[in-house]
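Hi support team,

I submitted a single chain yesterday and got back a structure, but I'm not sure I'm reading the C-alpha cell output correctly. Could someone confirm the output below corresponds to the sequence I sent? I've pasted both exactly as they appear in my results page.

Thanks,
R.
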Amino acid sequence: MALLLISFIAGLLTVLAPCILPLLPVIVGGSVSDTRSKWKPYIVTGSLAASVVVFTLIIKIGTDFLDIPQGIWVWVAGGILFVFSLTMIFPRQWAKISHKIGAEKKSNQWLGKASQKKNFAGDILMGAALGPVFSSCSPTYFVILATVLPQSFGIGLLNLIVYALGLSIILLAISLIGQKFANKVAVLSDPDGWFKKTIGVLFLLVAIAVISGFDKQIEIWLLDRGLVPSIGIENKLLDSAGIE
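Hi R., thanks for writing in. Yes, this is the structure output for that exact sequence:
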C-alpha cells in the first residue's frame, strides 16, 4: 500500500524532472492548439497514460526476451510527431498533398485530417506517440520496473498504472490551465494562425530531439548536476517506507 501511494506521488513529481521534457510541449501545446475541443486535453493525457503503461511493458518484454532495439520505438514515435508538426506548420499544403495522394496513402490522409479537426483518433495518436519514447528518471519508476514487476507482475502493473495516473493528472491540470488561457486570447484560438504554427515548430523540434537522442543528453546533463529536486523527494519517501 505504501508503494502505491509513493507511485502516485512520484507520477505527480515527474513533471518537475527533465525526463518529462519531450512530453510537455506535445501534451500542453497539442491541447492548447485546438481550443475548440474541450475534451482534447483529457483524450491526449489519457492516451499518454495508457501508452506509457503499455510501452513500458512492451519495451521491457522486448528487451528481456525479444531483443527488440529501443531505437525502433524512438524512430516510430519521432516520425509520428514529425508528421504532426508538418500538418500544423503547413495545414493547407498538407491537405492538398493528402488529397492528391488519394487511396494509396489513406493512412497519411487520415492523419492529416485527424490533426486539423476535432478527431478523437488524432488526439489519441498524439498522446500515444509519446509512450515509446517515455523514459523516467524517477527512482520509484525504476523500483517498479526492476524490482516489483519481476517479483509480481500483477502488483508491478498496478503500481505502474498508479504512477501513470499521477503523471497524467498533473499534465492534464497544466493542459487545462493552458487551454483556458488560450480561450481568452483570440489570436491563440485561430486554428490557422501563427500560434498553431509555432506549436507545430515546437513539435518539429521535439521530434528531432527524440530521433537524435538530444533529449536524453539534456536529461543526463541536468541529472549529473543535481538539478532534479523531485528525485531527492522520492528517495526520502522510498527510504521512509523501507523500499529499495
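A quick pointer for reading it: Confidence is low (pLDDT under 50) at residues 103-117. Let us know if anything else looks off.

Best,
Support desk
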